[in-house]
Amino acid sequence: MNLNTDRDTPELPYKTHTIVLGNEKGGSGKTTSAMHVIASMLKEGLTVGSIDLDSRQRSLTRYVENRRNWSEANNVPLALPDHRVIDRSSLDSIKDQEREERSRFEGVYAELVAANDIIVIDSPGADSYLSRLGHSVADTIITPMNDSFVDFDLLAQVNPDTYEVSRPSLYAEMVWEARKRRAMADGGTIDWVVMRNRLSSLDAKNKRRVEMGLNSLSQRIGFRIAPGFGERVIFREMFPSGLTLLDLKDSGTNLSMSHVAARAEVRQLIATLELPILTERTTATKQTA
């Protein structure tokens, strides 16, 4: 049944919870965050489908491939997502490109929804039709940002003298449009979570100003703020092996205090997301206890 009222929003098969990692700036830890969300869901015993919408960089795709290769080379079984990458269209006209990309996205998304509990979509670090399609099916959008006014510009323009928010950014407006389309398509809502990455341990004046600006903007355009990952080398070192902080015991790594602290950050992020499927399982466990 076609419930769609806007052809910029794909038909929505219903079953899973879809998490979209979205950010139109690079270097914010988007793919690292996506892989840790995937690993967290797999650790919960859930089936996970993942989609890489950045067919040029393919960062999430390489992360999953590295994970598979490390697992096979070291004979250590690691849970893997059902992963797909969607290529951009090479057709001539924009209309034909969008039609082809839409068809590819709907086909892959429907297949993954039919077989998985959770879908995690890693979107490109720039505006694109595929990115907008991904955002439009989200139940949760996670936007990682580095904790500075350089990345704050992703969300809003700031008065350089007063540091007050003057207007939402183009990306914030795109999320707003995705929310409207989702409401029109199925009456659903999108929970938007802004994740503050690379937080400094120092209580710097700039850090406080960013926090004040985010708190003000969150009330205006409707997102929640989540503590993200600190500036830890360990996050970057894991990419070549495809491991996450949740895999360290399985991989035989001796845990340092930095590992333990970073793993706590991952768990705090997952708790902050308040995913319905995890909440329902916790409630059911308490009722049967």
Would you write up a description of this structure?
- The chain has one domain: Rossmann fold (3-Layer(aba) Sandwich), CATH 3.40.50.300.
- 46% of the residues lie in helices and 15% in strands.
- It has 10 helices and 9 strands.
- Strands 3-2-4-1-5-8-9 form a 7-stranded parallel β-sheet, sandwiched between helices. Strands 6-7 form a two-stranded antiparallel sheet.
- Helix 1 crosses helix 2 and helix 3 packs parallel to helix 4.
- The longest helix is centred in the middle third of the chain and has 22 residues.
- The N and C termini lie far apart (40 Å).
Write the layout of secondary structure elements.
Blueprint: E1 17-21, H1 30-43, E2 48-52, H2 59-74, E3 82-85, H3 94-115, E4 118-122, H4 129-136, E5 140-146, H5 149-152, E6 156-158, E7 165-168, H6 170-186, E8 191-197, H7 205-221, E9 224-227, H8 233-237, H9 257-273, H10 276-288
Parallel strand pairs: 1-4, 1-5, 2-3, 2-4, 5-8, 8-9
Antiparallel strand pairs: 6-7
Helix pairs in contact: 1-2, 3-4
CATH superfamily: P-loop containing nucleotide triphosphate hydrolases
Strand line-up in the sheet with most strands: 3-2-4-1-5-8-9
What is the string of SSEs from the N terminus onward? EHEHEHEHEHEEHEHEHHH
Major sheet characteristics:
7 strands, parallel
Features:
single chain, 289 residues, alpha/beta, Rossmann fold, 7-stranded parallel β-sheet, two-stranded antiparallel ribbon, 10 helices, 15% strand, globular
